[in-house]
Write a structure and sequence with these properties.
The structure holds two protein chains of two kinds. Chain A has helices spanning 2-12, 15-31, 33-36, 39-57, 60-67, 72-100, 118-121, 123-143, 168-173, 179-200, 216-239, 267-275, 284-287, 289-318, 320-346; strands spanning 353-354, 359-360. Chain A is built from 15 helices and two strands. Chain A has three domains: 1-105 and 206-257; 116-146; 261-361, no CATH class. The radius of gyration of chain A is 24 Å and the shape is globular. Chain A has a two-stranded antiparallel ribbon. By secondary structure, chain B is mainly α. In chain B, strand 1 and strand 2 (239-244) form a beta hairpin. Chain B has seven domains: 1-37; 62-195, Helix Hairpins, CATH 1.10.287; 226-325, no CATH class; 335-377 and 626-713, Cytochrome Bc1 Complex, Chain D, domain 2; 394-577, Cytochrome Bc1 Complex, Chain D, domain 2 (Orthogonal Bundle), CATH 1.10.760; 716-812, Cytochrome c-like domain (Cytochrome Bc1 Complex, Chain D, domain 2); 830-930, Sandwich (Immunoglobulin-like). In chain B, helix 11 packs across helix 25, helix 30 crosses helix 34 (908-922) and helix 32 packs across helix 34 (908-922). The chains are: A mainly alpha, B mainly alpha.
């Protein structure tokens, strides 16, 4: 019985299922954020998480994986991300109720707007936090010593060779993208996008107080990019990727000899070889014309379509440059889940595959 | 809650919180310091002090017993008396002591002044000479004279000081003398007590030196290490000296006197060979991990160093006492203690046998015996011949039926066959596989026999006398290489020769004519054979053959062996043919082959598949690469690259080796392999002890590179010795001769009287002349007339004879020619006296040949001078048992005194030299005569 449940959990943790589940949960949670943003929900969620985590710990493989000194900070990350996300939603939900009732947000009340001294109110607390955190780090360092490994050997990389935990999301992206895209273009877009946020989002609402209702689009974009894409990929990369970067369920032992069938096919191969049954054209552009067309289509049609349907007002509000920049960044972000699904459903390797110039998309 | 204006918090509360977290931080810092301070090895070192204290107190007890108490009392009384006597000079002594003290002060002052002058002078000299400040010349002169004066003063003080000292000791003369005498008796004990005091870890000074925060100054508890300049560690980007810190806990590993302690306080066994200061492996040059493996630089705990338990019992014990668990991230765990000899090979390269590494040598010998190096390339083993007999002319040796049944399972016929079993194993005994195996055997037999060359024995077998034959086998020397099933009782029980085949039921196996021919001239059948000729007569050979052929194995003989199944054969061939072709193409190709051709084709492919050519000479397979993977570096193969299949055994290299040797097909269990992909390594049915030895030999094959300065490099003489050793290993000289304590299997028969067995060859180079040995190996003759065992005639090349001769000579460190040009000149009357001596000593009562018709029991003296080195003859005469402990040659000059006083004034040296001359005068060259 236990084995069967473990098997089921192992199976549904595979990215295709777990990502889809997370996506659905995210949308539902987003829609019913006022339910999520209650203390009751928070307590129930904490309870379920604790019970499940406790039960899971009784499994050897899970225990070994979760308590590895390398993975302890990631465990802390999950817990703090979970808590703070809930806390923000909770605060926002409270404020939204007040706003609907015509009141000021809590942070904006007369009492909260009183000014206090930086010293000692801020600096003293920072000092206390610093001292407490030092003590915490020392205790951590004593109880869980740094995981020293054998001396580095350039001819014998550890298997799995994992990036530092904060880069594991990027490393996970390598599964779906060419290194150029996953390692350079997408991270570049993320950084540029983060830099651009203050310039493309001049909306003064929500400044200095929690709110959900007033900033739905921004909330959606941020939480989707942060929780669903970034944190989720780090989790997968940390706990569920084993030797040879194969996928391992949380209760599965890391067997270095695990074999997973993976024969991925390029879009051009699908079109020319499998569908038409001919050889691929010599000319690169002729060969990849479908992918190039699709890319152009992706970058234009959705924007036109969305703008026509819902975006006219927004376009007016933001101005053309801001609007199209945002649209481009959003499309860039969305390319990740789209590519993931294309891989899972069609074993699609690259949409455009110009390996002659290492240009694969 | 209300706060003061401008305040979000109550400041008092903040202070309290700050105080609490600060105290917590302080406590954690203290905790961190303690965590850093308390190290497992410190505990071990404290315990080591206790152990040392115990050992010392035992020694003190022994000393106490040694000291004569009455003498001690007397000496103490003497000292007391002397002190009293000296007391009468009390005033004088006090004065002298006061003078001395004053003088010391003056000396000290003068030294300070002196050093000031000399440093100033040096500065001035520099300025004058280098900076060209010529006006300093006067100043320079002034300081020079000042310094001279001061030097003079110092000298004067010194002489005054010495005078005063002498005066003082003169005054205290009696006391000093008494003290010295007492010291002679109690000195050792006092020093031991001093040493014991140092092993007390409770003295305040000790505690302070090792206290936290103070222990950076001069702690007594500290990490000890050996830095090895000659042996480096591959840190991938550069080679760094290897650092072994094992001695931090193994405190007394290179010190005598701790042999009975428990680990880690035990002394290393055999200090004279390993770790001892004068041993070939001194601890400062070799360290620990180069032999034992392990991470010698890691100190944090017991596991980090790579300790590996030898047995399950030890593992449990370690789990209890050291919290031991399987280590990860350790690239080079220690060898299990029983496998330590695997560490020898990396420094002792290029030799067949490593002296003292008994277990490793045994394993390496087994590799040769079973011919592992036939299928698996191992660098440095290329000089060995194929371990199986040649199959080039096999069809005239044995029958087809025998061949097939033998290949199917050699052990059905010969329980001690060296040939391994390929079939009927755990992975291929299913019916469908067996059917295919039988077809393969049929085909390969057909192929080998069809391609086999015609061999016609040069004599015909005639029935002889089996009893005489049996007698010959057991006396002539066959047992040095072969075991004979029917001759294995009594003294023969212990002789376990394995170089040749185990002889059983030859009557069911070989062609009688072939056997007689083989016995008479082994090279006639196989030119490359290592089997020597015993120079048997026709009758002797027939007698031996009659005996061997009289044993039959009827059960084996009547084993049926089905004819080739043509459809299975075609099926197998199709599989081979379709590797590079389509099914259709393969079928077309098959159709072009005739029935016989198909069988031969499958036979050829089967021989290639099972690698028969690795052990047997077969025509047409000379260029084939062996079928097994190379083993040169198998001891360093990463664990993750070793396939443990579905076996739930410990993932360790040695465990894999031993499981693999026990049943090589075990890894196929639970796999879905097709017939073609099944494991092919045959089963040698090895006993556990041999598996252990082979495992050590395989573990030793590591890739680790030791710099040239670190490894054992053979001296020119050792190099020549090794060359000889290699030849002697090929021809199994050690089957009969014991060399340096190794080999001499057949001597076990002669345990009662070794004089009737083969000679020991340890110092053969010292004994015989090189020219004689070289010729003897070519033309063997009987040296000791009483012996029934024969030195056989080997089919050695000139080069090999040279190598043996040169090697034995190099080993004994002697030159090729010795006193060669000495002319025989008799002094007047000397010859007569010598003959008289010769008769008196009755030399010719044993060395009878040429003197009388009595059956000789000692070698012919007429050949002696050309055979033996003159210096050796003299040594031999002087004390035969010292040269050869079991000889019956009497010692005529017992204790260096002659029993014949009248001859040559009874001077032993003159007598022996005269006898040497006499032997020379008798001598003629055996080999020239033969020409």
């Amino acid at each position: 019985m236990v084995a069967v449940i473990k098997d089921i959990i192992n199976t549904i943790s595979a990215p295709i299922y777990s990502f889809s589940t997370l996506l659905i949960l995210f949308c539902v949670g987003f829609k019913y954020y006022r339910v999520v943003g209650t203390k009751k929900f928070g307590l129930i969620a904490l309870g379920i998480f604790s019970v499940l985590f406790g039960l899971f710990l009784s499994d050897d493989n899970f225990y070994k994986n979760v308590t590895a000194p390398d993975n302890i900070p990631i465990l802390m990350l999950i817990m703090s991300v979970g808590f703070f996300t809930w806390y923000a939603i909770f605060k926002a939900a409270c404020n939204d109720v007040r706003i609907e009732a015509g009141l000021e947000p809590e942070e904006n009340t007369e009492k909260e707007r009183q000014k206090v001294w930086v010293w000692p109110n801020l600096v003293y607390i920072e000092l206390i936090a610093m001292v407490a955190f030092c003590a915490f780090l020392i205790v951590w360092g004593i109880l869980i010593p740094a995981p020293l490994e054998e001396s580095a050997n350039p001819t014998w990389a550890p298997n799995p060779a994992k990036a530092p935990w904060y880069f594991l999301g990027l490393q996970e992206m390598l599964v779906y993208f060419d290194p150029w895209i996953a390692g350079v273009v997408l991270p570049g877009l993320i950084i540029i996008g983060l830099i651009l946020i203050p310039y493309i989002d001049p909306n003064p609402k929500g400044s200095g107080y929690y709110t959900f209702m007033q900033r739905k689009l921004a909330m959606f974009m941020f939480l989707f990019g942060w929780i669903v894409l970034w944190v989720y990929l780090i989790l997968i990369g940390t706990f569920l990727r084993g030797p040879n970067w194969s996928f391992f369920g949380p209760f599965e032992p890391w067997d270095i000899h695990k074999v997973t069938a993976a024969s991925n096919i390029n879009l051009s191969e699908y079109f020319w070889v499998l569908a038409l049954g001919t050889t691929m054209p010599q000319n690169i552009f002729a060969r990849e014309f479908l992918g190039i067309l699709l890319l152009l289509f992706y970058l234009t049609v959705p924007i036109i379509f969305v703008t026509k349907l819902w975006g006219k007002e927004l376009l007016k509000k933001m101005g053309a440059i801001r609007y199209y920049l945002t649209a481009f960044l959003v499309l860039g972000m969305m390319s990740l889940p789209i590519k993931m699904y294309l891989r899972w459903f069609f074993n699609l390797k690259y949409i455009i595959a110009i390996s002659e110039f290492e240009l694969n998309l | 809650m209300k706060h003061e204006p401008g305040m979000a918090y109550n400041l008092n509360n903040l202070h309290k919180i700050f105080a609490v977290v600060s105290i917590i931080l302080l406590l954690t810092v203290v905790w961190m310091m303690l965590d850093d301070f308390i190290r497992p090895w410190k505990g071990v070192q404290v315990k080591a002090m206790k152990v040392e204290g115990q050992v010392l107190s035992k020694k003190i007890k022994v000393q106490n017993k040694l000291i004569d108490q009455t003498k001690l009392k007397k000496l103490t009384a003497n000292l007391k008396h002397a002190k009293k006597q000296v007391l009468s000079n009390g005033l004088k002594i006090k004065n002298v002591e006061a003078d001395l003290l004053k003088l010391k002060g003056k000396q000290h002052r003068e030294k300070i002044i002196n050093s000031k002058y000399s440093s100033l002078l040096a500065q001035l000299t520099y300025q004058f000479e280098v900076k060209n400040k010529l006006d300093l010349l006067d100043k320079l002169g002034k300081y020079k004279s000042l310094l001279e004066k001061s030097n003079d003063q110092i000298k004067e003080y010194k002489s005054r000081f010495n005078k005063l000292k002498n005066k003082l000791s003169e005054l205290k003369k009696e006391e000093i003398k008494a003290k010295k005498e007492l010291e002679k008796v109690t000195g050792v004990k006092n020093r031991l007590i001093e040493a014991q005091k140092k092993t007390d870890p409770t003295t305040p000074v000790w505690l302070l030196r090792n206290a936290p925060f103070f222990d950076y100054l001069d702690p007594t508890l500290k990490i000890s290490q050996i830095v090895l300049g000659n042996i480096t560690e591959d840190r991938y980007f550069r080679q760094v000296p290897r650092v072994d810190r094992c001695i931090t806990c193994h405190t007394f590993i290179d010190k005598k006197g701790f042999e009975s302690q428990k680990n880690p306080f035990k002394t290393h066994p055999r200090l004279s060979l390993i770790l001892g200061e004068n041993s070939p492996h001194p601890i400062k040059k070799i360290g620990c991990t180069i032999c034992h493996g392990g991470e010698g630089n890691r100190m944090q705990d017991f596991i980090a160093a790579g300790h590996t338990p030898s047995t399950i019992k030890q593992k449990k014990q370690w789990e209890n006492s050291y919290n031991w668990h399987k280590a990860i991230h350790i690239t080079r765990p220690m060898y299990k203690l029983k496998h330590t000899e695997a560490g020898c090979l990396k420094c002792h390269q290029g030799v067949d046998d490593i002296t003292y590494a008994t277990h490793l040598n045994k394993g390496r010998k087994l590799i040769r015996t079973y011919g592992c190096n036939g299928c698996h390339k191992i660098k440095g083993w290329e000089h060995f011949q194929k371990s199986g007999p040649s199959l080039v002319s096999i069809k005239d040796k044995i029958s087809k039926q025998f061949f097939k049944n033998w290949v199917l399972n050699p052990r059905d016929f010969n329980p001690k066959a060296k040939m391994p079993s390929f079939f009927g194993q755990t992975n291929n005994s299913k019916d469908q596989f067996l059917k295919r195996n039988i077809t393969e055997i049929n085909a390969l037999t057909e192929y080998i026999l069809t391609k086999s060359k015609k061999y016609s024995p040069f004599v015909q077998y005639q029935q002889g006398d089996p009893n005489t034959g049996k007698n010959l086998i057991s006396t002539v020397g066959c047992l040095g290489c072969h075991q004979v099933e029917s001759i294995s009782k009594g003294p023969y029980n212990k002789v376990k020769s394995r170089a040749g085949s185990y002889l059983t039921a030859l009557g069911s196996k070989v062609n009688p004519d072939w056997l007689v021919s083989r016995l008479l001239r082994p090279v006639h059948y196989q030119a490359s054979t290592v089997m020597p000729s015993f120079r048997l007569s026709n009758i002797e050979a027939n007698n031996i053959a009659s005996y061997l052929l009289s044993f039959k194995n009827n059960k084996f003989q009547s084993l049926p062996f089905g004819p080739i199944d043509k459809s299975t054969r075609d099926e197998l061939l199709l599989e081979y043919l379709s590797v590079l072709d389509t099914k259709k193409g393969a079928r077309a190709k098959l159709a072009t082959l005739s029935d016989a051709e198909r069988t031969l084709e499958l036979g050829h492919r089967s021989v290639s598949k099972y690698g028969c050519f690795a052990c047997h000479n077969l025509l047409g397979f000379a260029d084939k690469t062996p079928i097994g993977p190379e083993l040169t570096r198998v001891g360093s193969k990463p664990i993750s690259q070793i396939a443990f299949g579905r076996q739930t055994i410990e993932h360790k290299r040695d465990v894999w080796f031993s499981s693999h040797l026990k049943n090589p097909r075990i890894w196929d269990q639970g796999t879905a392999k097709s017939f073609r992909d099944l494991q092919r390594m045959p089963n040698f049915n090895l006993p556990t002890k041999e598996i252990e030895a082979l495992t050590i030999a395989l573990l030793a094959q590591v890739s680790q590179k030791i710099p040239l300065e670190g490894i054992k490099r053979l001296s020119p003489n050792e190099h020549l010795t090794e060359k000889a050793n290699k030849v002697m290993n090929i021809y199994n000289c050690r089957g009969c001769h014991e060399i340096d304590g190794q080999g001499g299997e057949i001597q076990k028969i002669y345990a009662k009287d070794l004089n009737f067995g083969p000679t020991r060859l340890g110092q053969e180079g010292k004994r015989v002349r090189s020219t004689w040995l070289h010729q003897f190996l070519q033309n063997v003759y009987k040296v000791r007339p009483a012996l029934k065992i024969r030195m056989p005639s080997f089919n050695l090349t000139n080069e090999q004879r040279n190598q043996i001769t040169r090697g034995l000579q190099a080993k004994a460190n002697v030159s090729t020619f010795e006193n060669n040009s000495l002319e025989l000149v008799w002094e007047s009357g000397q010859k007569e006296a010598t003959i008289e001596l010769f008769d008196e000593l009755a030399c010719n009562s044993c060395h009878t040949i040429g003197f009388s018709d009595i059956e000789a029991i000692a070698p012919d003296l007429h050949y002696a001078y050309n055979r033996l080195r003159p210096q050796w003859i003299l040594n031999w005469l002087q004390n035969p048992t010292e040269v050869l402990d079991y000889t019956v040659m009497p010692n005529f000059w017992f204790d260096g005194e002659s029993q014949e006083d009248e001859i040559m004034d009874g001077d032993p040296t003159r007598q022996m030299e005269a006898l040497l001359k006499y032997i020379k005068s008798l001598s003629y060259n055996k080999f020239q005569k033969a020409d």
